[in-house]
């Protein structure tokens, strides 16, 4: 689990900043399989009937940020 990973990381190599934590976390939990799964979801993403464009855009942005997160 992520908590186990975090505790182990703190014992071995303490994390001193949010940026460092994000980089380590992304490196550990963003597997190629996970990224490909997210890309598949992106390819099949459509605006639902009667869904406001703003809501669809928020879902799109959220999915894109999962695929390519900002680390700073």
TrEMBL record:
It comes from Rotaria socialis. It comes from the Eukaryota. It holds the Pfam family Retrotrans_gag. PANTHER family: CCHC-TYPE DOMAIN-CONTAINING PROTEIN. Residues 2-68 form the Retrotransposon gag domain. This is Retrotransposon gag domain-containing protein.
């Amino acid at each position: 689990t992520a908590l186990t990973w975090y505790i182990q990381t703190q014992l071995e190599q303490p994390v001193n900043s949010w940026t460092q934590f994000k980089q380590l976390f992304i490196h550990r939990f963003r597997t190629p399989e996970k990224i490909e799964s997210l890309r598949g979801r992106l390819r099949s993403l459509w605006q639902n009937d009667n869904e406001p464009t703003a809501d669809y855009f928020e879902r799109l942005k959220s999915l894109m940020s999962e695929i390519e997160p900002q680390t700073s």
